[in-house]
Amino acid sequence: MFICGGASVLNTNLSSSHPRRPNMRSIVVSPVFFSLATARLFTVYNACPFTIWPAVWTNSSYGTAVPLVEGGWEAPTNTSKQFAVPDNWAAGRIWGRRGCDFSNPERQGPDTCVTGGCTGGLNCTSDGAAPTTLAEWTLSPTDDRHDYYDVSLLDGFDLPIRITSSAECPAAECAADLVASCPQPLRIPTDQNQPAQGCTTSCFANLDGNPGNSTNCCTGQFASQGSCPWSNIAFFDYFRESCPGAYAWTFDGNNQNVLKTCSGANRADYTVTFCPPA
């Protein structure tokens, strides 16, 4: 189930109402140009009763198109942020960070946050450190293909997430709070005197002591689907039963319950809600 790596959308070759898009002809986003006539509108809403720090990152190994937004920002409770995203965005991620402190200019790496911290401090220039709940996309720029999106627990869990679309395509979500009842070996921080803010995976917790050759990570001699059944992964049931619609096993790519699609012809806009209502 859990592997030290990304989920389905990151390996794919190629869904709430939204305000109208800005009335602009085009805009520059380094390193590419894209037209707002074909861009999608993304809304990130914090419904949590506390401040979080959302982040956005694009895996440049799969494409150079990037959203028109900074790599991270502070989001007090009940606030939202909207931004344009090119319709050929590939291997994109949005996640929320908890327990962040960016006050030290010499400490701007992953350890600036209890969960989801990244290189760059507030403005992420890398993906987030586990544990963190991920919302992932690869969009289609053409009508004959599909947007692919999912909520992934491959890097663990820190915040409930729901993805919805203007096209009313299937929602992707992990709306349950997995932190509250997180198994003790997976709890983050591990210090019992501090409040729990995340629930990592058996892989990232290094429960078997060998992440390079591990049934918990599906690595080494366990790197194939046949040699890494989910039944052999510690605490798999906790994540899958809590959020059956989330990507939780590295071989979930063919699981239509977790990998959602939306026709490219819909030109769907998307909303990411942290701590959505049940």
Which keywords apply here?
278 residues; mainly beta; Thaumatin; globular; disulfide bond; Osmotin/thaumatin-like_sf; Thaumatin-like protein
Could you please describe the fold and organization of this structure?
The protein is mostly beta strands and 278 residues long. It has a single domain (8-274), classed as Thaumatin (Sandwich), CATH 2.60.110. Helix content is 3%, strand content 24%. It has one helix at residues 236-242; strands at residues 26-29, 32-35, 40-46, 53-58, 79-85, 92-97, 134-138, 146-152, 161-165, 172-174, 187-188, 198-199, 260-263, 270-274. The strands form four sheets. Strands 5-3-14-9-10 form a five-stranded mixed beta sheet, with no helix packed on it. A hairpin with a 6-residue loop joins strand 9 and strand 10. The radius of gyration is 18 Å and the shape is globular. The chain starts with 25 loop residues before the first strand and ends with a strand.
Number of domains: 1
| Spatial shape | globular
Strand content: 15-25%
Total helical segments = 1
CATH superfamily: Thaumatin
Helix-strand pattern: EEEEEEEEEEEEHEE
CATH architectural category: Sandwich
Query: Sheet bearing the most strands, described?
Result: 5 strands, mixed
Structural class: mainly beta
How many beta strands in the DSSP annotation?
A: 14
Uncertain segments are: 1-8, 10-32
